[in-house]
Design goal:
Number of helices of chain A: 13
Number of domains of chain C: 1
Shape of chain A: globular
Helix content of chain C: over 70%
Largest sheet of chain C: 2 strands, antiparallel
Chains: A mainly alpha (312), B alpha/beta (523), C mainly alpha (353)
Radius of gyration of chain A: 20 Å
Shape of chain C: globular
Largest interface: A-C, 46 and 49 residues
Oligomer: heterotrimer
Strand content of chain C: under 5%
Order of helices and strands of chain A: HHHHEHEHHHHHHHH
CATH topology of chain C: ABC transporter involved in vitamin B12 uptake, BtuC
Structural class of chain A: mainly alpha
Number of strands of chain A: 2
Radius of gyration of chain C: 22 Å
Order of helices and strands of chain C: EHHHHHHEEHHHHHHHE
Distance between the termini of chain A: 68 Å
CATH class of chain C: Mainly Alpha
Chain lengths: 312, 523, 353
């Protein structure tokens, strides 16, 4: 393998890891506060469609990213309302968000664009001066899309806030023992709302990233299960942002390698093997989950609604 | 809160009413607390004491009534308001995040350490507070590493660190040894001498007489008595609390122990956290006797019970039933061999709340005739008629108060759920009955009923193995007692042989009988 | 002002009927708004919808045909829900069943009688479906890995496997462009029109599973394990075993649904069979309250929605994915209605004074 090939495989790895990292760290915050949001996939799909629509209509990519975030916010609010205020079963509520996002994104796309082929001008990869000149690494990590650079900053910051800030302490306490936090005046409802909405906004952004940077088009199910993978990677990372981040790279790498083999298969005239290779990323995630299963310990209050008043 | 004169009313509630579906937990309750006094709030489980305190602390919203702090009408919408009014509360079940450190638990919710937490400053201030109040816990230890006594100190520290002047303690002694209880009472005395007000919630009469200045007795959501400690007597308090004369003795004759039913030798087991929780213990239980385990919760009792009932695999040792080796057998076989269990947490371990009373009564014996008939292999058809008949009989015999046998078990009161479990476990033909905290959280009537059932089970030839955090329960029911500390048996004796203080030393691990003496005791 | 939730004591019967009915009506009302937004007349649309779903014997038998996979999969999902494990993977198990059936047919249909092909194919489909779900059940029971994530991953593995097979080993050599299998000859016996024996088998299986769940010791234990696993463990029940068993059955039913659709409905395997039937079945089970007899009715209703929207599509030119939106909304409103059945919302002014 030439250095150029290695570099481009790594480049694609980072690209594929980015939406997962956004969705994953968002889900991680929600789960750390005790909310299991299984609707990530649906939120990503809605984020992807909305950003596609805005980019297609306005040509403004920044607006497209923001539209993804906005739709994520709205769906996050719905999820938070159902799971925090109404105390519904979170698994069922999350599936509801998924179905809703899945159906609505597809319906709106088909209604607006029908069967015509619609595409947008994708965002470009930007080279960082100096850093991009490093052999192999430079091309892989520093000739990248805008959201990748955001990821480089966001994940460490989210990690730092989780473990070192007052909010992070409150978040962790609420996810472990909401009653204890409540008795010290920590607003359990507010924290869970904020964490769920923030997480969903990041999932919306992840959807936008998929559309604006990776595909440039919208189609049914374009997330390829990434929302659920993100949930799996939170588990893989044992609820730690940095370990989760490593997981996204693992998935990104397996996906990137599978994609790179596309050229090879098309050269030997066996294109269908690409699909066979595309099973690998999902199997990698499954194996990763099995590998950490003995060590993983979920936040104690995960997916348990909190009632302040219960009769003894 | 500014300086207050001793004797000044710092907290007053008037006409508090709180209703839960089906019960009035507080029925027009009035209460006054003064600076410099310990007010004991006495009442049975379910009398409404905790509900009242949760209202004062802002956890519950009252349906009616007013609260005054320092003579000023206040609206407490949540614990935050209560804290800022100088109210602190130590809950019966500690409100701590196990996975966080002592320091993190104490500063949780405080704003003065910045958005990015200044842990150095927090630690400094905490050390100062430790010095001032004469309490100490390692600030960097995780809560799950602490003993019950240490956790309680953290809990008290949480309130004091927030400047509490009115301290509420809900059943604070239930997890403590006699020595720790004495220590706590000394600390509380120091607090009130410094001008604080303490509300002490309990159902233990002895403690009231020891620590209180004033006593308020509650029964069924109402205040039924207010007296000074000097004018109170224990029988009088008991009558007020229960509403009738109470016999403090259980009708229990001499034990007539027979052959050995259960024998445990050198048993070892791990806890969920992967540390050894049961460290090579040996004992036996005979037909017609009650063997009790005393000890502070968390010293291996839970793991021991789980091993005996086939819910946890031992790492070493032997368990025999009538001489037959049953070590490591799974639960369904243990049940068949004739061991019954009254589990520690009755609702989460003892019943399926969404199943009917009848279904819960045959839970473990659904595979037996006449409750089901074989269709083929392991598949059996349920016979609702026979299940019903059996259930009706047990409901009558054990006085389970339920609208019908079809009522969902989760709707019953705690006492009736416990009766249901006892009915099931005592009626399925077992030789050994393991009772884990059988009366925790029950009122006096249900407690008496259940204790007498256990004695009756003994007298009809069963072996009974009793585990209880309530030392007086162990001493009054058992024929032989063992004390567990950190997974080992530190003492064995018959009730009456040792003074309470000495038992306390064994429970704390401060004293230990030689191993040979312990093993000889079971010969 | 504060909002407080209170658990209702006795729930009056009319609330039980009104709440879910309201959920359906609201979902269809929202559907009407979506149609208006898309520039179609809701009256015309729903007219076509009703004709397509119920307008005569033939549309109705088509509705029953569409209901068959829903019924099979939702019955299985209800069973696994009862043991407290959520099988999101019916979609993948359905695909695996369809693949197994097709593979057997391609292999054997030219050499052995049709009914043997069907028998062998369906049995293999059931086994493969059961294993596909059982793997997730095993990982959940023995390692505590979230079954939702595992089953979704397995769905994608199945989808990629299908895409690969249809372009490779299972490709019809005569078809140049479209990835599809060769036509499959053997078919299930017909009852009326397109409606085949599969529907009858699905109904019988639903009744059988209802019987096992509510009338036998195994169902008793399975429900106990789902309702309170801790107490079930203390009662000596094999909680992990029940969980795995329920997933095996759930997957078997989904695998059977895939096989039945291949030999009963499509007579070919192509990528278009992946339209989220497995996901819809989760909604079918929810609406049927995890009760196999109620699921029969619920499955027929969703079969009607599918057929209705298909006929609506031809009249209004709306995308068939409208049905997905309506389903999603039925699901959400149904959740909310369940909540309103259990709780009363009260507004409290100020504090308690």
């Amino acid at each position: 393998m030439t250095p150029e090939q290695i570099s481009s495989i790594l480049n694609l790895m980072v690209v594929m890891a980015t939406p997962l990292a956004f969705a994953g760290v968002g889900e991680l915050y929600a789960e750390r506060s005790g909310i299991l949001n299984l609707g990530v996939e649906g939120i990503m799909l809605m984020g992807a469609f909305t950003s596609f629509y805005v980019a297609h209509e306005t040509g403004n990519l920044l607006l497209a990213y923001l539209a993804g975030v906005a739709v994520g916010l709205a769906l996050g609010l719905l999820m938070a309302f159902m799971s925090v205020s109404m105390r519904l079963n979170q698994v069922i509520a999350g599936m509801g968000i998924y179905f809703f996002g899945f159906g609505l994104s597809d319906f709106m796309y088909k209604t607006i664009y029908g069967t015509e082929y619609a595409s947008i001008e994708k965002a470009h990869q930007i080279a960082v001066p100096l850093l991009s000149k490093i052999p192999i690494i430079g091309n892989a990590f520093f000739v990248q899309y805008p959201s990748v650079y955001l990821m480089y900053v966001l994940i460490p910051v989210m990690w730092y806030l989780l473990y070192r800030s007052r909010w992070g302490l409150h978040l962790r306490a609420v996810g472990e023992n909401p009653r204890a936090a409540d008795t010290l005046g920590v607003n359990v409802t507010l924290i869970r709302y904020l964490a769920t909405v923030l997480g969903a906004a990041l999932a919306g952004l992840a959807g936008a990233v998929l559309c604006v940077e990776i595909t440039g088009i919208f189609f049914e199910n374009l997330t390829f299960g990434m929302g659920f993978i993100a949930i799996g990677l939170v588990y893989f990372g044992r609820w730690d942002p940095l370990r989760m981040w490593a997981g996204t790279m693992l998935f990104g790498l397996s996906w990137s390698i599978a994609m790179s083999l596309q050229d090879y298969f098309s050269r030997i005239g066996k294109m269908h093997w690409v699909y066979f290779m595309l099973m690998i990323p999902y199997i990698v995630v499954l194996l990763a989950l099995i590998a950490v299963s003995r060590k993983a310990r979920a936040p104690a209050a995960l997916s348990k609604p909190y009632w302040r008043e219960t009769s003894e | 809160m500014s300086e207050v004169a001793p004797g000044q009313v710092v907290l007053e509630v008037r006409g508090i009413v709180k209703r839960f579906p089906g019960v009035v937990a507080n029925d027009h309750v009035d209460l006054q607390v003064r600076a410099g006094e310990v007010l004991a709030l006495l009442g049975e489980n379910g009398a409404g004491k905790t509900t009242l305190m949760n209202i004062i602390y802002g956890l519950y919203t009252p349906d009616e009534g007013e609260i005054y702090v320092m003579g000023r009408r206040v609206h407490i919408r949540g614990p935050k308001d209560a804290i800022s009014l100088g109210i602190g509360m130590v809950h019966q079940h500690f409100m701590q995040v196990e996975e966080l450190t002592v320091l993190e638990n104490i500063i949780l919710g405080l704003r003065e350490f910045g958005i990015i937490l200044d842990t150095e400053k927090a630690k400094r201030m905490l050390e100062e507070a430790f010095q001032r109040y004469g309490l100490r816990v390692d600030p960097d230890a995780y809560i799950w590493q602490l003993s019950a006594g240490e956790k309680q100190r953290v809990e008290i520290m949480k309130a004091l660190f927030r400047g509490a002047k009115i301290l509420i303690l809900d059943e604070p002694t239930s997890v403590l040894t006699p020595q720790e209880t004495k220590e706590l009472f000394k600390t509380l005395r120091k607090f009130v001498e410094g001008g604080m007000a303490v509300i002490f919630i309990t159902h233990k009469l002895q403690e009231v007489m020891e620590v209180a200045d004033r006593i308020v007795v509650m029964r069924r959501g109402k205040v039924v008595g207010r007296l000074m400690r000097e004018e109170a007597t224990i029988p009088q308090l008991a009558r007020l609390m229960v509403g009738r004369e109470v016999l403090f003795r259980i009708e229990k004759g001499e034990a007539r122990p027979g052959e050995v039913v259960l024998r445990v030798e050198g048993l070892r087991a791990m806890s969920d956290k992967g540390v050894e929780a049961v460290k090579g213990i040996t004992f036996s239980v005979r037909k017609g006797e009650i063997v009790g385990v005393a000890g502070v919760a968390g010293n291996g009792q839970k793991e021991l019970v789980e091993v005996l009932y086939g819910l946890r695999r031992p790492t070493a040792g032997r368990v025999t039933l009538f001489g037959k080796d049953v070590t490591g057998e799974p639960t369904h076989r243990i049940i068949k061999f004739g061991i019954s269990l009254i589990p520690e947490e009755r609702v989460t371990m003892g019943i399926v709340p969404t199943f009917s009373v009848a279904d819960n009564l045959i839970l473990e014996i659904v595979d037996r005739e006449p409750f089901s008939q074989k269709v083929f292999d392991g598949l059996r058809k349920l016979s609702f008629e026979n299940i019903e008949k059996y259930a009706e009989e047990l409901i009558r015999k054990f006085d389970i108060r339920t609208p019908s046998s079809k009522t969902k078990a989760g709707y019953l009161s705690g006492g009736n759920i416990q009766k249901l479990i006892l009915a099931r476990e005592l009626s399925r033909g077992a030789y050994l009955i393991i009772a884990d905290q059988p009366t925790a959280g029950l009122d006096v009537g249900a407690t008496e009923f259940i204790r007498n059932l256990l004695v009756k089970a003994r007298d009809s030839g069963n072996a009974v193995f009793l585990v209880s955090g309530d030392l007086s329960e162990v001493l009054s029911l058992s024929d032989r007692v063992m004390v567990m500390y950190e997974g080992e048996i530190t003492a064995v004796f018959r009730p009456g042989e040792l003074p309470i203080e000495e038992i306390g030393l064994y429970m704390l691990g401060a004293k230990k009988m030689p191993k040979e003496e312990v093993e000889r005791f079971w010969e | 002002m504060r909002i407080r939730l209170e658990r209702r004591g006795e729930v009056p019967l009319y609330v039980y009927i009104l709440a879910p009915t309201g959920a359906f009506l609201l979902a269809f009302l929202m559907g009407a708004f979506l149609m208006l937004w898309a520039g179609a007349s809701p009256i015309k649309g729903y007219g076509a919808f009703l004709r397509g779903a119920f307008g005569g014997l033939k549309p109705f038998t088509n509705t029953l045909l569409r209901a068959t996979p829903f019924l099979l999969m939702a019955t299985g999902i209800s069973l696994s829900n009862r043991s407290n494990v959520l099988n999101i993977g019916a979609e993948g198990q359905y695909i695996m069943g369809a693949i197994a059936m097709t593979w057997i047919a391609v292999l054997m249909q030219n050499s052995v009688p049709g009914f043997i092909v069907i028998l062998v194919g369906v049995i293999l489909a059931v086994i493969v479906g059961a294993l596909w779900a059982g793997a997730a059940g095993y990982l959940k029971a023995k390692m505590g890995i979230n079954e939702v994530v595992v089953t979704v991953m397995l769905n994608w593995v199945a989808i990629m496997l299908l895409k690969w097979l249809l372009r490779g080993p299972l490709k019809d050599p005569r078809s140049q462009q479209w990835p599809m299998s060769p036509p499959i000859g053997p078919h299930l016996p017909y009852i009326y029109g397109n409606l085949n024996l599969g529907f009858v088998i699905a109904v019988l299986l639903a009744i059988a599973i209802w019987y096992v769940l509510f009338r036998t010791n195994i169902g008793f234990k399975l429900r106990a394990c789902g309702e309170n696993p801790r107490a079930a463990r203390y009662a000596g029940f094999n909680v992990e075993g029940m969980l795995i068993l329920s997933m095996l059955i759930s997957g078997a039913m989904a695998g059977m649904a895939g096989a039945f659709d291949v030999i009963g409905t499509f007579h070919i395997l192509y990528e278009g069979i992946v339209v989220g039937l497995g996901y819809t079945s989760i909604i079918v089970a929810l609406v049927g309250k995890n009760h196999p007899l109620a699921v029969i009715g619920s499955a027929i209703m969703f079969g009607a929605i599918y057929n209705g929207v298909t006929s609506m599509q031809s009249v209004t030119q709306l995308s068939y994915t409208l049905s997905k939106c309506i389903e999603g909304m039925i699901y959400l409103f149904f959740l909310i209605s369940e909540f309103l059945v259990l709780y009363r919302i009260r507004l409290i002014r100020g504090d308690a004074s």
